Amino acid sequence: MELGEIEAFLTLAEELHFGRTATRLHVSQSRVSQLIRSLERRAGGPLFERTSRRVALTALGERLREDAAPAYDGLHDALARARATSRTMGGELRVGYLPSLGGAPLTDVADAFRRAHPGCSVILRQVTMTELTRAWSGEVDIQATLLPVDEPGLTVGPAIGTYERLLAVADDHPLAAAGRARLEDLADYHLPAMPPGIPSALHDSYWPARTPSGRPIIRITVDGTYREALHLIARGRIVLPTDSGTARFRRYPGVTWLPIIDMPAARAVLTWRTAAENARVHAFAGLAARMIQQ
Prior knowledge:
Elements: H1 3-15, H2 18-25, H3 29-43, E1 48-50, E2 55-57, H4 59-88, E3 91-97, H5 106-116, E4 120-126, H6 132-139, E5 142-146, E6 154-163, E7 165-170, E8 190-192, H7 200-206, E9 218-220, H8 226-234, E10 240-243, H9 244-249, E11 255-259, E12 266-273, H10 279-293
Parallel strand pairs: 3-4, 3-5, 8-9
Antiparallel strand pairs: 1-2, 5-12, 6-12, 7-10, 7-11
Helix pairs in contact: 1-2, 1-3, 1-4, 2-3, 5-10
């Protein structure tokens, strides 16, 4: 059923005159007749009694008007509210993202949001895993992060990406020849100890304390930046479980990225404080969901 058919029907039911209906709708009388005939075919019977002198609703037409008018009015009200929100939404939306989640699709959503809501500025801010708790406490309005998320008071919104789990190893590492790795392999090598402050559920999903068989995974302290950790990986000192999102931004000479075949893919989502949700947050999350589903 087309909206134009309902609009023509409800207008004719009010005017009971094809000429006045056509004038109100800015179409020809023949177009009104065409829309009414199409709707009557859908309804299974005549909606109007037509003579050369008068137009009147049939019993079927009366019933359809009673049922359709509230829904049509509700749709118009919803569209009016949406237009008003689009015109008046202003202020600032702060969107945090993990380094591995930079770029598309998040930047595509931000650009589309700016076009849809020119009065609202979108500020993208990189947030490391150790800064997530502080970001969720109010430093950003929306945070793009990786599952799992089990902090209280947060809403987990739409998914924005899926990333393969990888193991960063030296080009000449024994695992490199196989072209893949398993979680059980981690017990045979050293992993870097992660800095404090990473949410525990997220930390344990990337860097478990034990392998599936229960063997302990050894961690060693690594000072310095992520780039320095990659240097140690290239030298064969450590290996590092990560994901394809990180790999695309952290390419380094002498480092190979192997799929961890028994580790589930990492899912990226939008999150925000439930108590702080507002029209800007709702609009951005909804836009992200629609764009990424396409």
